[in-house]
Amino acid sequence: MSGLCLTAVLGTMGALPAYAEPEPEPPATERISTTYDGAQLDEPSYGPAMGDGRNTAFTAEGPVGRDDTDGLADVYIHDRLGKNSEVSYNGDGPSRAGTPCTSGRMVGFVSESTKIVTPPRPDRRPLVYIRNRSVGKVTGLHSYQGVAFASMSQPMVDSFCMWITYTATLPPTEADPDPQPRVYRFRFNGGTTDLVSEASGEAAGHPSISEGGRYVAYEQGGDVYVRDLDTGSLEKAGTALGGGAANGTSSAPSISADGRRVAFESRASDLVPGDRNRDVNVFVRDLDTGTTTLVEGAHKKDGTAQASLALNGTHVAYVSARTKRAKGKGPAPSVYLLELATGKTQLISVDSEGGRNDLAAGEPSVNHDGTVVAFASASADLVPGDTNGVSDVFLRTAR
After folding, report:
1. Which residues contact 163 (CB under 8 A, 6 or more apart)?
2. What residue spans of the chain are helical by DSSP H?
3. What is the pLDDT, as a whole number, of residue 75?
4. Cβ contacts of residue 240 below 8 Å, gap of 6+?
5. Alpha helices (H) in 21-135, listed in sequence order
6. What pLDDT does 322 receive?
7. FRET pair for 305, CA 20 to 30 Å: which of 157, 255, 262, 346?
8. What's the number of CA atoms in the CB half-sphere (13 Å) around residue 11?
9. H or E segment and range at residue 76
10. Dihedral-angle region of residue 145 (phi above 0 means left; psi in -120 to 50 means alpha; beta otherwise)
11. 319-352 pLDDT tens trace
């Protein structure tokens, strides 16, 4: 419609009503690791990793799809329509550690199968693959500079569906008889493989990649680092007050889309003032301002761990637990969500009566804007009809 015609229409209609944002969905918990017809699984499911909206990859040890009859652990993705689709199909070995981009089009995973790609592999080394779900194509990432990896793990796809980072170990050589795991980055569609972590002789791992692949956070030698692959610069996240070395180890980073913020867990007590619970805690480091925020547990003596930072950097999901529970007494580990700007905290692994889960909940993964959190738990009180007695994967719509 031309500008003239639009002006005429507006003149006859009067002012258009202001656009109204859709009402947020009410808080709700949904079990997503179910069979194709919605029945509960008999075997455990775990390892959720969220993309955009409700796209969630997970691992299931029992059959989810109608044609899944191999009896092996497989990777699935739960899409926005509520459908579960197998990612690691045609395999003859277990698969795990699914990781989608935001749209769910590209999914990375680890498999020990010999038949994921053609021609078949000669052995069952755990290696990383990428499934392009739009065309069904699977690609293996099995070497660096012509040398085949001995093993691979911990893949993570960036939100743009362009890059993947992972941990891998090269085979022993005379020059390096005990090679340590390193962190790598690969660009889809014929890109090259980049080495991310330092050649320090210490194991590196648990990579997390920013949107567009420029920044990769990882752990190495008891510290968390962020590498800028454009400039090559390296920054440490677990820095003590005053800028010195911390008095404890840091690990398990989760980075925001812009690479500005990184969440991680640390046993250090000198990253922020007032850290007195003598336990592991989650922290969020703003690399632009150099400030660090402590994510406190639900109770005074609780530690926090397993951080998952929303891509927009506004929320962090985590587990709150008392690591010194006496003979199983006390509350089970639970999943929470913190809004960093306001300090608002929500219980995510909430039971049907609004209380904490009965059995342990963990492995949180938050979507891009903090509105949905995936997690795993064997607790039977989170949704009606949960009687299988094994770990399931759930989605919780946050307030």
Report:
1. 157, 185, 186, 187, 188, 191, 209, 212, 213
2. 3-13
3. 97
4. 246, 247, 268, 270, 271
5. none
6. 82
7. 157
8. 6
9. strand 74-78
10. left
11. 999 876 555 566 899 999 999 999 999 999 999 8
Tens digits of residue pLDDT in 135-145:
999 999 999 99
**DSSP state for residue 72 in the 8-state scheme:** S
Q: What's phi and psi for 9, nearest 5 deg? A: -65, -45
Query: Is residue 294 scored above 60 in pLDDT?
Result: yes
For residue 162, the one-letter residue type is: M
Exposed/middle/buried for residue 298 (C-beta within 10 Å: 0-12, 13-18, 19+): middle
12 φ, ψ (degrees, to nearest 5): -85, -25
Percent of the chain past pLDDT 70, that is, above it, reads: 91
- CA dist., res. 129 & res. 138, Å (int): 7
Measured CA to CA, the distance from residue 94 to residue 118 in angstroms comes to 17
The Cα–Cα gap between 378 and 316 comes to: 22
Beta-bridged to residue 133, according to DSSP, are none
The residues, ordered by sequence, that sit 6+ positions from 250 with a Cβ below 8 Å of its Cβ are 219, 222, 223, 224, 237, 238, 264, 265, 266, 267, 268, 283
Q: 167 to each of 44, 178, 195, how far by Cα in Å?
A: 25, 16, 10
As a whole number, mean pLDDT of residues 240-249 equals 92
**What DSSP assignment string belongs to 182-203?**
EEEEEETTT--EEE-S--SSS-
Q: Which two tokens stand for residue 137?
A: 């194509």
